[in-house]
Structure to design on (399 residues):
């Protein structure tokens, strides 16, 4: 993030702390309960936001060198994403052109060839069919007509985008806009190294998971013994970028910046940036690296979802851990503590109450959820969601 923007945001947080204020959306909005429970709405979401929308499947660090790959089936189309021998990022429909079987079932690894487990048809990491057994008995075919179907794929700013449709378009100007493009270009997310991935499955609508990241109003209650020890609650900055948003959470360490010159301020030292990337991504840069949170519906239902949490670190952090290993410190345990610490807050606190909220919504005894004037990120998210589905915006009620 550019220095002038870091200073503006950190000054805004300090001003809120000193004046006991917070960002103000100007009123409240009420989102209907069927936003989370409607089967018809869910069908429209799945078609619009997952089957027919560019998807972030990971970061450059998920494909750290030539001949590495990752697979996913999270948005309805099996995908095999590769980095070929030239270092190029490519994506293919992960089904064999012979009988439609999933070709590669491992989630990530290193190989240049992929062989179907049914009959052994083999493909290169550029999608070409390079061989099939007993060709003289099977019959001669034109191999160039039997390659893996290629999907639109784009690697930029350290993110890996794939479009589930072969005819889809990935237009970053449309997805992000000029301001966010310039901001992402300044972060160097492409240097981050993949470390671990966890999956949290919860009995709740997938959007409730996103809602939990949209405000810090709850910190002093839900997180009183966890995050609230390190963050000021109900104090944040928020900016929107087309359908995306950026929430800046206020760390207690921001007080240490008061004694430093502004040229020494670092956005991750005094705050925690939380990016919402439409339609289902939460991305959180930190001093050590970043968290990538991908939210998906589960079991073709509005009532169950899962989050894939990927952990990344800056190279110098991992090098430092290697040096610590030499002194007898268990660096692997330090990393494990990071994963478990994230889970203990997000999975065991945020998602637990979100699942409780979903249970309440399904009971039919609540007509709507209310988002306060101190929760503008949720105002933006829900009205963006509605706009994308062709629904009327939720009216702002001044209070």
């Amino acid at each position: 993030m550019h220095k002038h923007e870091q200073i503006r945001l950190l000054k805004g947080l300090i001003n809120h702390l000193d004046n006991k204020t917070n960002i103000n959306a100007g009123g409240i909005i009420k989102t209907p309960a069927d936003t989370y429970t409607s089967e018809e709405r869910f069908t429209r979401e799945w078609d619009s936001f997952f089957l027919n929308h560019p998807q972030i499947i990971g970061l450059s660090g998920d494909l750290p060198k030539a001949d590495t790959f990752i697979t996913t089936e999270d948005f309805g189309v099996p995908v095999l994403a590769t980095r070929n021998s030239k270092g190029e990022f490519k994506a293919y429909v992960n089904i064999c052109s012979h009988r439609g079987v999933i070709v590669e079932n491992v989630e990530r690894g290193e190989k240049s060839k992929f062989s179907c487990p049914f009959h052994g048809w083999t493909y290169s990491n550029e999608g070409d069919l390079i061989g099939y057994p007993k060709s003289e008995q099977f019959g001669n075919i034109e191999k160039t007509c039997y390659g893996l179907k290629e999907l639109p794929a784009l690697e930029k700013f350290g993110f890996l985008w794939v479009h589930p449709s072969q005819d889809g378009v990935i237009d970053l100007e449309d997805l992000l806009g000029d301001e966010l493009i310039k901001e992402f270009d300044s972060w160097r997310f492409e240097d981050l190294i993949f470390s671990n991935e966890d999956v949290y499955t919860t009995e709740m609508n997938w959007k409730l998971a996103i809602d939990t990241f949209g405000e810090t109003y709850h910190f002093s209650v839900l997180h009183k013994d966890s995050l609230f020890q390190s963050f000021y609650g109900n104090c944040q900055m928020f900016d929107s970028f087309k359908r995306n948003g950026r929430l800046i959470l206020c760390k207690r360490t921001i007080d240490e910046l008061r004694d430093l010159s502004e040229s020494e301020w670092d956005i991750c030292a005094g705050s925690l940036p939380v990016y919402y990337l439409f339609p289902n991504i939460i991305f959180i840069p930190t001093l050590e690296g970043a968290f990538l949170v991908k939210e998906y519906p589960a079991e073709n239902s509005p009532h169950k979802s899962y989050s894939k949490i990927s952990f990344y670190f800056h190279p110098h952090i991992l090098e430092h851990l290697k040096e610590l290993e030499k002194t007898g410190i268990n660096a692997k345990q330090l990393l494990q503590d990071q994963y478990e610490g994230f889970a203990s807050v997000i999975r065991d606190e945020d998602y637990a109450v979100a699942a409780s909220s979903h249970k309440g919504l399904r009971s039919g005894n609540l007509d709507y959820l209310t988002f306060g004037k101190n929760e503008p990120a949720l105002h933006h998210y829900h009205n963006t969601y509605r706009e994308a589905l062709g629904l009327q915006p939720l009216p702002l009620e001044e209070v």
Remarks:
- The mean pLDDT is 96.
- Residues 248 and 290 are 14 Å apart (CA to CA).
